[in-house]
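Chapter review: from sequence to fold.
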Amino acid sequence: MPHGPTICIIDDDTDVRESISSFFRSAGLSVEGYSAAESFLSSPSLKKVDCVITDLHMPGMDGLGLHRELRRIGVDVPVIVMTAYSTPEARAEAKTLGAAAFVDKPVDPEILLQDVESILDQQV
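The token string follows.
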């Protein structure tokens, strides 16, 4: 069973969420997946997460809204925002919020893993 950092992936697309989760688990990381920002915010994982990977566009609260809410409630965790529909405005807002990364879909899981490992290395 994986130990160490916990990565939470929030994406309403089950295939994307499961694909990234499976890849990260095969690399030995603990991963939890959520189909909505609201589900993640009400989960016990909120207290133990080391990195959040969130889709930008989701029903209900979007990825930037999730990032704003995490900051508002004092959860200072690195956030990676991913989207298939990037705009300069979304990139700018993510940067303003302090996103650790902003990546375009389709996401190469190996590059995403490198981003996560780099973020986690900086936390040590």
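Two observations follow directly from the output. Residues 6-123 form a domain with the Rossmann fold fold (CATH 3.40.50.2300). Strands lie at 6-10, 30-34, 51-55, 79-83, 101-104.
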